[in-house]
Predict the structure.
Amino acid sequence: MRWDRIIKAVHREVEPILGKGKVASYIPALANVDPKYFALVLTTLDGKSYATGQADIPFSSQSISKVFMLTLALEAWGGRLWKRVGREPSGSSFNSIAQLEYEQGVPRNPFINAGALAVTDAVISKAGERGALDDMLTLVRRASQSDRVRINPDVAQSERQWGHRNTSLAHFMKSFGVIENDVDQVLNTYFCQCALETTATELSRAGIYLANAGKLPHTDEKITRAERATRINALMMTCGHYDMSGDFAFRVGLPGKSGVGGGILCIIPGVGSLCAWSPPLNAAGNSLAGTRALELFARRADINVF
Ligand code: DON
Protein backbone atom coordinates (compact mmCIF):
# COMPACT_ATOMS: atom_id res chain seq x y z
CA MET A 1 0.00 0.00 0.00
CA ARG A 2 1.25 3.47 -0.92
CA TRP A 3 0.78 5.05 2.54
CA ASP A 4 2.51 2.18 4.30
CA ARG A 5 5.49 2.47 1.99
CA ILE A 6 5.79 6.23 2.48
CA ILE A 7 5.50 6.02 6.27
CA LYS A 8 8.12 3.27 6.55
CA ALA A 9 10.47 5.17 4.20
CA VAL A 10 10.12 8.33 6.29
CA HIS A 11 10.90 6.34 9.46
CA ARG A 12 14.11 5.00 7.91
CA GLU A 13 15.09 8.47 6.78
CA VAL A 14 14.64 10.14 10.20
CA GLU A 15 16.40 7.33 12.10
CA PRO A 16 19.79 9.16 12.16
CA ILE A 17 18.35 12.24 13.86
CA LEU A 18 16.26 10.45 16.53
CA GLY A 19 17.50 11.62 19.93
CA LYS A 20 18.69 15.00 18.61
CA GLY A 21 17.18 18.06 20.29
CA LYS A 22 16.14 18.48 23.92
CA VAL A 23 13.36 16.59 25.71
CA ALA A 24 11.15 18.99 27.73
CA SER A 25 12.49 18.96 31.26
CA TYR A 26 10.32 21.45 33.17
CA ILE A 27 8.46 18.52 34.76
CA PRO A 28 9.81 15.02 35.57
CA ALA A 29 6.91 13.26 33.84
CA LEU A 30 8.06 14.65 30.49
CA ALA A 31 11.81 14.44 31.16
CA ASN A 32 11.70 10.68 31.82
CA VAL A 33 10.66 9.57 28.34
CA ASP A 34 13.00 7.67 26.00
CA PRO A 35 14.38 10.30 23.56
CA LYS A 36 14.70 7.65 20.83
CA TYR A 37 10.98 6.91 20.70
CA PHE A 38 9.41 7.73 17.36
CA ALA A 39 6.00 7.19 15.80
CA LEU A 40 4.29 8.30 12.64
CA VAL A 41 0.64 7.42 12.05
CA LEU A 42 -1.69 8.40 9.24
CA THR A 43 -5.43 7.83 9.58
CA THR A 44 -7.30 8.20 6.31
CA LEU A 45 -10.94 9.14 5.85
CA ASP A 46 -11.90 5.51 5.28
CA GLY A 47 -10.85 4.85 8.90
CA LYS A 48 -7.65 2.95 8.17
CA SER A 49 -4.51 3.78 10.14
CA TYR A 50 -0.98 3.31 8.80
CA ALA A 51 1.66 3.31 11.51
CA THR A 52 5.34 2.95 12.20
CA GLY A 53 7.36 3.00 15.42
CA GLN A 54 6.00 3.33 18.98
CA ALA A 55 2.51 4.18 17.77
CA ASP A 56 0.79 2.61 20.78
CA ILE A 57 2.83 4.09 23.62
CA PRO A 58 0.90 6.84 25.44
CA PHE A 59 2.53 10.26 25.67
CA SER A 60 1.57 13.73 26.85
CA SER A 61 -0.34 15.63 24.16
CA GLN A 62 0.26 18.97 25.88
CA SER A 63 -0.50 21.90 23.58
CA ILE A 64 -2.17 19.69 20.96
CA SER A 65 -5.12 19.68 23.39
CA LYS A 66 -5.56 23.37 22.48
CA VAL A 67 -7.01 22.27 19.14
CA PHE A 68 -9.78 20.31 20.85
CA MET A 69 -10.56 23.06 23.38
CA LEU A 70 -10.71 25.57 20.52
CA THR A 71 -13.20 23.33 18.73
CA LEU A 72 -15.43 23.34 21.83
CA ALA A 73 -15.06 27.10 22.31
CA LEU A 74 -16.10 27.77 18.71
CA GLU A 75 -19.09 25.49 19.12
CA ALA A 76 -20.08 27.36 22.27
CA TRP A 77 -19.41 30.94 21.15
CA GLY A 78 -19.17 31.00 17.35
CA GLY A 79 -17.63 34.20 15.98
CA ARG A 80 -18.02 35.96 19.35
CA LEU A 81 -14.96 34.01 20.54
CA TRP A 82 -12.77 36.41 18.54
CA LYS A 83 -13.58 39.23 20.97
CA ARG A 84 -11.53 37.36 23.60
CA VAL A 85 -8.66 36.07 21.49
CA GLY A 86 -7.03 37.12 18.21
CA ARG A 87 -6.17 35.24 15.04
CA GLU A 88 -2.70 36.51 14.25
CA PRO A 89 0.63 34.74 14.62
CA SER A 90 2.49 36.14 17.62
CA GLY A 91 6.09 35.73 16.45
CA SER A 92 6.86 35.10 20.12
CA SER A 93 7.49 32.00 22.19
CA PHE A 94 4.51 29.95 23.37
CA ASN A 95 4.59 31.26 26.92
CA SER A 96 5.48 34.89 26.23
CA ILE A 97 3.79 37.60 28.30
CA ALA A 98 5.24 40.72 26.58
CA GLN A 99 2.61 41.33 23.87
CA LEU A 100 -0.25 41.05 26.35
CA GLU A 101 0.54 44.39 27.94
CA TYR A 102 0.55 46.29 24.63
CA GLU A 103 -2.61 44.57 23.44
CA GLN A 104 -4.85 45.11 26.48
CA GLY A 105 -4.66 41.53 27.67
CA VAL A 106 -6.17 40.04 24.50
CA PRO A 107 -3.88 37.20 23.36
CA ARG A 108 -2.74 37.08 19.75
CA ASN A 109 -4.12 33.62 18.94
CA PRO A 110 -5.68 30.52 20.56
CA PHE A 111 -2.50 28.42 20.43
CA ILE A 112 -0.04 30.46 22.49
CA ASN A 113 -0.52 29.74 26.19
CA ALA A 114 -2.27 33.06 26.89
CA GLY A 115 -4.71 32.39 24.05
CA ALA A 116 -5.37 28.85 25.21
CA LEU A 117 -6.15 30.15 28.71
CA ALA A 118 -8.67 32.59 27.18
CA VAL A 119 -10.21 29.75 25.13
CA THR A 120 -10.46 27.46 28.17
CA ASP A 121 -12.05 30.33 30.12
CA ALA A 122 -14.63 30.70 27.32
CA VAL A 123 -15.50 26.99 27.44
CA ILE A 124 -15.80 27.12 31.25
CA SER A 125 -18.24 30.04 30.92
CA LYS A 126 -20.60 27.73 29.00
CA ALA A 127 -19.89 24.28 30.40
CA GLY A 128 -18.52 24.89 33.90
CA GLU A 129 -15.12 23.82 35.20
CA ARG A 130 -15.76 20.07 35.26
CA GLY A 131 -17.86 20.24 32.09
CA ALA A 132 -15.09 21.85 30.03
CA LEU A 133 -12.63 19.07 30.76
CA ASP A 134 -15.26 16.33 30.43
CA ASP A 135 -16.37 17.72 27.07
CA MET A 136 -12.80 17.76 25.78
CA LEU A 137 -12.20 14.17 26.94
CA THR A 138 -15.47 13.04 25.41
CA LEU A 139 -14.57 14.67 22.10
CA VAL A 140 -11.10 13.09 21.97
CA ARG A 141 -12.36 9.66 23.10
CA ARG A 142 -15.18 9.66 20.56
CA ALA A 143 -13.03 10.84 17.67
CA SER A 144 -10.14 8.50 18.52
CA GLN A 145 -12.54 5.62 19.27
CA SER A 146 -10.56 4.93 22.42
CA ASP A 147 -11.68 5.03 26.03
CA ARG A 148 -8.09 4.62 27.16
CA VAL A 149 -7.45 8.33 26.45
CA ARG A 150 -7.15 10.08 29.81
CA ILE A 151 -5.87 13.03 31.78
CA ASN A 152 -2.64 11.87 33.43
CA PRO A 153 -3.01 12.99 37.08
CA ASP A 154 0.75 13.09 37.75
CA VAL A 155 1.39 15.34 34.75
CA ALA A 156 -1.52 17.60 35.75
CA GLN A 157 -0.11 17.87 39.28
CA SER A 158 3.38 18.74 37.97
CA GLU A 159 1.93 21.33 35.59
CA ARG A 160 0.25 22.89 38.62
CA GLN A 161 3.42 22.80 40.68
CA TRP A 162 5.59 24.38 37.95
CA GLY A 163 2.90 26.56 36.40
CA HIS A 164 4.24 29.94 37.55
CA ARG A 165 4.38 31.40 34.04
CA ASN A 166 0.86 30.25 33.14
CA THR A 167 -0.40 31.53 36.49
CA SER A 168 1.11 34.93 35.73
CA LEU A 169 -0.46 34.98 32.26
CA ALA A 170 -3.91 34.15 33.64
CA HIS A 171 -3.77 36.78 36.39
CA PHE A 172 -2.45 39.38 33.97
CA MET A 173 -5.36 38.74 31.60
CA LYS A 174 -7.80 38.78 34.50
CA SER A 175 -6.51 42.26 35.39
CA PHE A 176 -7.63 43.39 31.91
CA GLY A 177 -11.01 41.69 32.33
CA VAL A 178 -10.27 39.21 29.53
CA ILE A 179 -10.62 36.17 31.82
CA GLU A 180 -14.20 35.86 33.05
CA ASN A 181 -14.05 33.00 35.51
CA ASP A 182 -12.13 32.33 38.68
CA VAL A 183 -8.43 32.26 37.71
CA ASP A 184 -7.74 29.09 39.71
CA GLN A 185 -10.54 27.25 37.92
CA VAL A 186 -9.21 28.31 34.53
CA LEU A 187 -5.66 27.30 35.46
CA ASN A 188 -6.73 23.97 36.90
CA THR A 189 -8.63 23.12 33.71
CA TYR A 190 -5.72 24.26 31.55
CA PHE A 191 -3.20 22.18 33.54
CA CYS A 192 -5.45 19.12 33.22
CA GLN A 193 -6.01 19.61 29.48
CA CYS A 194 -2.23 19.82 28.94
CA ALA A 195 -2.00 16.44 30.71
CA LEU A 196 -4.14 14.81 28.00
CA GLU A 197 -2.51 11.46 27.31
CA THR A 198 -2.90 9.64 24.02
CA THR A 199 -0.94 7.38 21.74
CA ALA A 200 0.09 8.54 18.28
CA THR A 201 -2.57 6.27 16.78
CA GLU A 202 -5.26 7.77 19.01
CA LEU A 203 -4.17 11.32 18.24
CA SER A 204 -4.10 10.76 14.50
CA ARG A 205 -7.67 9.42 14.76
CA ALA A 206 -8.77 12.26 17.04
CA GLY A 207 -7.87 14.88 14.43
CA ILE A 208 -9.79 13.23 11.61
CA TYR A 209 -12.83 15.56 11.78
CA LEU A 210 -10.56 18.44 10.76
CA ALA A 211 -9.69 16.57 7.56
CA ASN A 212 -13.33 15.70 6.92
CA ALA A 213 -15.20 19.02 6.97
CA GLY A 214 -15.90 18.77 10.71
CA LYS A 215 -17.43 15.27 10.70
CA LEU A 216 -16.25 11.92 12.06
CA PRO A 217 -16.08 9.69 9.00
CA HIS A 218 -16.88 6.45 10.87
CA THR A 219 -20.21 7.69 12.30
CA ASP A 220 -20.93 10.80 10.21
CA GLU A 221 -21.29 12.64 13.53
CA LYS A 222 -20.80 16.38 13.22
CA ILE A 223 -18.15 17.66 15.64
CA THR A 224 -18.13 21.14 14.16
CA ARG A 225 -19.26 22.96 11.02
CA ALA A 226 -17.20 22.58 7.87
CA GLU A 227 -16.32 26.27 7.86
CA ARG A 228 -15.08 26.07 11.45
CA ALA A 229 -12.91 23.06 10.67
CA THR A 230 -11.38 25.07 7.81
CA ARG A 231 -10.66 27.95 10.14
CA ILE A 232 -9.12 25.78 12.84
CA ASN A 233 -6.85 24.37 10.13
CA ALA A 234 -5.95 27.91 9.04
CA LEU A 235 -4.98 28.79 12.61
CA MET A 236 -2.95 25.60 12.94
CA MET A 237 -1.08 26.60 9.81
CA THR A 238 -0.43 30.20 10.87
CA CYS A 239 0.00 29.79 14.65
CA GLY A 240 0.36 26.07 15.49
CA HIS A 241 4.13 26.15 15.88
CA TYR A 242 4.54 29.49 17.70
CA ASP A 243 7.49 31.51 16.42
CA MET A 244 8.35 28.69 14.05
CA SER A 245 4.93 28.53 12.39
CA GLY A 246 6.30 30.12 9.22
CA ASP A 247 9.09 27.57 9.09
CA PHE A 248 6.62 24.69 9.52
CA ALA A 249 4.36 26.04 6.76
CA PHE A 250 7.39 26.49 4.51
CA ARG A 251 8.77 23.00 5.12
CA VAL A 252 5.61 20.91 5.55
CA GLY A 253 2.85 22.96 3.91
CA LEU A 254 0.09 21.43 6.07
CA PRO A 255 -1.79 22.67 9.15
CA GLY A 256 -0.08 21.36 12.28
CA LYS A 257 -0.15 21.74 16.05
CA SER A 258 2.75 20.79 18.26
CA GLY A 259 3.05 19.93 21.94
CA VAL A 260 6.08 19.88 24.23
CA GLY A 261 5.55 16.14 24.73
CA GLY A 262 7.01 15.84 21.21
CA GLY A 263 3.77 15.18 19.37
CA ILE A 264 2.56 17.02 16.27
CA LEU A 265 -0.96 16.67 14.88
CA CYS A 266 -1.03 17.46 11.19
CA ILE A 267 -4.11 17.68 8.97
CA ILE A 268 -4.35 16.78 5.30
CA PRO A 269 -7.76 18.20 4.35
CA GLY A 270 -9.82 15.66 2.39
CA VAL A 271 -7.25 12.91 2.95
CA GLY A 272 -6.56 12.23 6.61
CA SER A 273 -4.90 13.15 9.84
CA LEU A 274 -1.27 12.49 10.78
CA CYS A 275 0.46 12.27 14.11
CA ALA A 276 4.24 12.39 14.43
CA TRP A 277 5.86 11.79 17.81
CA SER A 278 9.48 12.18 18.83
CA PRO A 279 10.14 13.69 22.29
CA PRO A 280 13.26 15.85 21.73
CA LEU A 281 12.37 19.43 20.80
CA ASN A 282 13.91 22.23 18.74
CA ALA A 283 14.53 25.74 20.09
CA ALA A 284 10.87 26.77 19.72
CA GLY A 285 9.56 23.75 21.69
CA ASN A 286 8.40 21.73 18.67
CA SER A 287 9.44 18.12 17.98
CA LEU A 288 12.68 18.20 15.99
CA ALA A 289 12.45 14.78 14.31
CA GLY A 290 8.65 14.98 14.20
CA THR A 291 8.83 18.13 12.09
CA ARG A 292 11.40 16.54 9.82
CA ALA A 293 9.26 13.40 9.46
CA LEU A 294 6.24 15.45 8.42
CA GLU A 295 8.36 17.42 5.97
CA LEU A 296 9.61 14.16 4.41
CA PHE A 297 6.11 12.70 4.38
CA ALA A 298 4.65 15.74 2.60
CA ARG A 299 7.45 15.64 0.05
CA ARG A 300 7.25 11.90 -0.63
CA ALA A 301 3.43 11.93 -0.82
CA ASP A 302 3.55 15.14 -2.86
CA ILE A 303 0.87 16.61 -0.63
CA ASN A 304 0.45 20.13 0.71
CA VAL A 305 -2.32 22.69 0.88
CA PHE A 306 -0.59 25.10 -1.46
O1 DON B 1 1.59 25.31 29.39
C1 DON B 1 2.72 24.88 29.19
O2 DON B 1 3.69 25.59 29.26
C2 DON B 1 2.87 23.41 28.82
N1 DON B 1 2.09 22.59 29.65
C3 DON B 1 2.46 23.13 27.43
C4 DON B 1 3.06 23.94 26.42
C5 DON B 1 3.23 23.31 25.09
O3 DON B 1 2.98 22.15 24.82
C6 DON B 1 3.87 24.21 24.16
N2 DON B 1 4.16 23.57 22.96
N3 DON B 1 4.96 23.25 22.27
Notes: Residues 62-63, 94-95, 113, 159, 166, 194, 258-260, 285-286 surround 6-diazenyl-5-OXO-L-norleucine (CB under 6 Å). The longest helix spans residues 129-144. Residues 2-301 form a domain with the Beta-lactamase fold (CATH 3.40.710.10). The chain is about 45% helix and 10% strand.
